[in-house]
Specification:
The chain contains five helices and 17 strands. The longest helix is centred in the first third of the chain and has 19 residues. The chain folds into three domains: 58 residues, no CATH class; 88 residues, RNA Polymerase Alpha Subunit, Chain A, domain 2 (Beta Complex), CATH 2.170.120.40; 101 residues, RNA Polymerase Alpha Subunit, Chain A, domain 2, CATH 2.170.120. With 253 residues, it is of the alpha+beta class. 18% of the residues lie in helices and 41% in strands. The chain has a five-stranded mixed beta sheet with strand order 15-13-10-12-16. It has a four-stranded mixed beta sheet with strand order 5-1-4-7. It has a three-stranded antiparallel beta sheet with strand order 3-8-6, with no helix packed on it.
Length: 253
Amino acid sequence: MKKYYDKIKKVIKKRNLTPKAVSLLLAIILWAYVSKEKVNLAGNYNAGLEPENAKILVEKKITRKVKVVPEFKGTAKDGFIMSGQVKCIPEYITIDGPLSIINNIGVIYTESIDIDGQSETFSRDINIRKVHEDNVNYSISQVNITVPIIDYSETAFITVPIVIKNERQGYNYLLISDKVEIQILKKDKEYIQTNSLSAYIDCNEINFDNEEFISQSKITAIGFVHVIADSLKIENIILSSIPVTAEIVVTKE
């Protein structure tokens, strides 16, 4: 059977066949293999396919970059909080596998990181939480996470509206929550000027190819809230933003 398998691989690679053509080719070769091998059996035996109408699934394989989102458990020591400026290296990983699975993976989460009783910043390597591991290949298994722990009394919050960027034609968007709370150190608040901070959700990061959206005229999607500053100096004093993600109701016109 191996020689037939090798022939199939060569033909597919050389001809760049579509999935339907590949399925037909596989069915023909499988039938030919069974027909050939049954002459080697004793006269009292017959060989055949069961069921006779066998189905062979051939699916396109794709590669995609997805964001790694750290997950946490526990609470910091009284009077201290975890800053949202968690650093993840790398921030994105590459996954590949069947199109129907990869298109439905929006983010990859880490295993839970315990911050219980912490009163200072720490770093550690943490495993990613793999999904559909039998069908999906992951570029790496671990990421390095740096978790800032700060004194809560030294922080302040600034409220900024969330806007939507890169809206696709033919769709309407409605944010469930349209504001984000940006956390900074109190001593840095004097540097924050009007309009020096902004927040947005990029519609290009929303997966419009998932099966749920294709079959429905309206879905609730999750978008990442990006916070940006008008200068590197302002950007460096941002501790966190809440929420990190926001729900968007996307409706087809």
